[in-house]
């Protein structure tokens, strides 16, 4: 047995810090929560209110533009049609709204942080261990403070998803910018381009395939949080899986799980195709 005299705990300090945040900035968190909730409810209403055939046409158009091939486009559209045929269309739209909002927030946070990491070795030294913690710590652990700050529902599910899904985008943005050829940057400097011109005119366009790969990975990781998010009040396909687990309804859980896989495949194929397309143009 480990000696009790050598043990310590920081749990009380963490609890006091969270309590202080709730007491001091409760109104700020409530405002953030209300704003995000309005955004996701609006997007969810838009998706659910759009005719199913119109959404299929939009997805087919995106797939055709990304892949430029008929067979993948038909396959992607057919897979989404299958989800509707299984009676899970509304649940699919709820999940898609959650994933889109979480991915958008992750992109807004992740790309600027990746750019800053690429420009500052000190920031990278501090941030990379934090990203390791965010990815390896069980998601249930950071659900606890998120629940205390935002309560139950869609908003804490979004924040928990962002915490888990943002690190790949930060890493790949940082990597893509740092891998831009030095000779290219020297030539740009020789023409007198300032830092903003270098960033938006050269570095970001050349790093775009890596950034697109990061967005792809972030979206996939956001989808992997769907079932866990359903445990704290998020609706959608994850809720169907959870109900299947609770009632030992294997068929119900398998159908919802298949729908999640289909959504992941659709998003993965489209985002990967856009990334490859950009890479081929640059080559």
From TrEMBL:
* Name used for this protein in its record: ABC transporter permease
Q: Which domain of life is it from?
A: Bacteria
A Pfam family recorded for this sequence: BPD_transp_1
**GO BP terms, alphabetized:** choline transport; glycine betaine transport
Q: Which family does it belong to?
A: Belongs to the binding-protein-dependent transport system permease family.
Predominant localisation class: membrane
**What subcellular compartments does it reside in?**
Cell membrane
How would you describe this protein's topology in the membrane?
Multi-pass membrane protein
- Entry keyword set: Cell membrane, Membrane, Transmembrane, Transmembrane helix, Transport
Is Transmembrane one of the keywords? yes
Q: Which residues cross the membrane?
A: 39-63, 70-89, 95-118, 139-166, 206-229
**Which InterPro entries would you find in this protein's record?**
MetI-like, MetI-like_sf
């Amino acid at each position: 047995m480990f000696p009790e005299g050598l043990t310590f705990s920081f749990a009380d300090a963490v609890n006091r810090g969270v309590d202080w945040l709730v007491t001091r900035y409760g109104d700020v968190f409530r405002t953030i929560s209300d704003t995000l909730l309005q955004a996701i409810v609006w997007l969810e209403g838009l998706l659910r209110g759009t005719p199913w055939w119109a959404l299929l046409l939009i997805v087919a158009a995106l797939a055709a533009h990304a892949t430029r091939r008929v067979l993948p486009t038909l396959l992607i559209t057919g897979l989404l049609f299958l989800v509707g045929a299984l009676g899970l269309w509304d649940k699919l739209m709820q999940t898609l709204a959650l994933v889109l909002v979480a991915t958008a927030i992750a992109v807004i946070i992740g790309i600027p942080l990746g750019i800053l990491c690429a420009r500052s070795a000190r920031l990278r030294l501090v941030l990379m261990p934090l990203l390791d913690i965010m990815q390896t710590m069980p998601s249930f652990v950071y659900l606890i403070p998120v629940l205390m700050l935002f309560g139950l529902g869609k908003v804490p599910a979004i924040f928990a998803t962002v915490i888990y899904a943002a690190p790949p985008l930060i890493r790949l943005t940082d990597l893509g910018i740092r891998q831009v050829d030095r000779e290219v940057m020297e030539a740009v400097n020789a023409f007198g381009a300032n830092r903003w011109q270098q960033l938006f005119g050269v570095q970001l366009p050349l790093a775009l395939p890596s950034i697109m790969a990061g967005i792809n990975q972030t979206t996939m990781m956001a989808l992997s949080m769907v079932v866990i998010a359903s445990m704290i009040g998020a609706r959608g396909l994850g809720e169907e899986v959870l109900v299947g687990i609770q009632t030992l309804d294997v068929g119900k859980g398998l159908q919802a799980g298949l729908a999640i896989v289909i959504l992941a495949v659709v998003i993965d194929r489209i985002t990967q195709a856009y990334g490859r397309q950009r890479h081929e143009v640059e080559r």
